[in-house]
Amino acid sequence: MPPPPGLKLLTTTVPLRDPDDLRLSEALGTPLFDSSQDCVKAVDLDGRLLGMNANGICLMEIEDFSALQGQAWSSLWPAEHQAAIDAAVAHARQGGVARLCADCPTVKGTVKSWEVLVSPVLDERGQPSLLLAISRDVTLQVRAEAERDLISRELAHRIRNLFTVVDGVVALSARSVPAVQTFAKDLRERLRSLGVAIASIYPELRETGADQSLQTLLRLLLAPYGAGDGADRHIAIAGDDLPIGQGAVTSIALVINELATNAVKYGALRVETGMVAVTIAVQPDEVTLTWREAGVEGAAVRPQPAGFGSTLLDTAVSRQLRGTLRREWLDDGLMVTLHLPRAILAA
Questions:
Q1: CA angle 270, 276, 277 (to 5 degrees)
Q2: Residue from 330, 331, 310, 314 nearest 322 by CA
Q3: How would you class 135 by CB atoms within 10 Å of its CB: exposed for 0-12, middle for 13-18, buried for 19 or more?
Q4: What are the φ and ψ backbone dihedral angles of 272, each rounded to 5 degrees?
Q5: Rounded mean pLDDT of the chain?
Q6: 324 near 318, Cβ under 8 Å?
Q7: pLDDT confidence of residue 198
Q8: What span, in angstroms and rounded, lies between the C-alpha atoms of 332 and 224?
Q9: Phi and psi for 126 in degrees, rounded to 5?
């Protein structure tokens, strides 16, 4: 968690009682400390509360700070977080900066989520003399994230049900027509493969482990479109391979699904003679992924107007994968070249 941007931290608003309070006041200065929108606390090297800014007193719903002054800061936290708070104090006491995120109720029992940064205040010798604890109320953000997760899980659940229903309809429709059962079987296999590929976008539906290789993911995603070993294969995957982390799976899935969908609608997978070659080249700091379509008349691969899909593709590559994307419309098909940082794929 990065330090809160633009935060100016300076003095305490509670009465000064001893030389430590005076040193804190001189070191920090009253106006800016009071103007902070976060809960800012002065803590001694043993983790005891010395002071708190006015907005912090309001956020924590404190009526009389003097009743808390001198108490262990960790005692204000739920038991399950007290060890983490004590560890943050110990780390800052050694000159480091500690960060954590946890829930803690106010004095009146209102549960809030906090992003916390603990840093030392150095004396004239450069040694920690006091600690500054900055707690930002992120309750609304945490709730919004929880709501987004709930919506994502619901969408994932509906997608799973949709494929189950379609699979059942196909099976039921073909049951009494022997002539189409072979076709229906192939269609059901493709639907199941497509469901697995789309599920890769949603963590709730993934069936893969914590880590997998890039080639394994590509084969999973492209299986419904003809990436296999049979005579009817329309997609070939070759080149290097490397492990990728779960953090990159969603973005890669979005990119590959968009490329495959466009190939079905406009490109190589639109015609019987079309082929797609996906090649991976791994360098020390970068991975080059080339999507090359061939076997298509030039009129079938004319540039399409930029739409939502193109925007989604560009955004996934540039913002989520921190890479670059280049499109080239060749005589017999489209070529897309992705340059992706290796470190991002491993995350």
A1: 175
A2: 314
A3: buried
A4: -65, -30
A5: 81
A6: yes
A7: 65
A8: 23
A9: 80, 15
Q: Find the distance separating the first CA and the last CA of the chain, reported in whole Å.
A: 17
Of residues 228 and 96, more confidence is placed in: 96
Q: Encoding tokens for residue 86? A: 């004590």
pLDDT at 316: 87
| The pLDDT value given to residue 182 | 83
Segment among 12-16, 81-85, 230-234, 248-252 with least mean pLDDT = 12-16
Q: Give me the mean pLDDT over the 153-174 stretch.
A: 81
Task: Read off the tokens for 174.
Answer: 């073909």
- Enter the tokens of residue 55: 């907005």
The answer to whether residue 210 scores a pLDDT higher than 50 is: no
pTM of the predicted structure, to 2 decimals: 0.53
Task: Find out whether 190 and 167 touch, Cβ atoms under 8 Å.
Answer: no
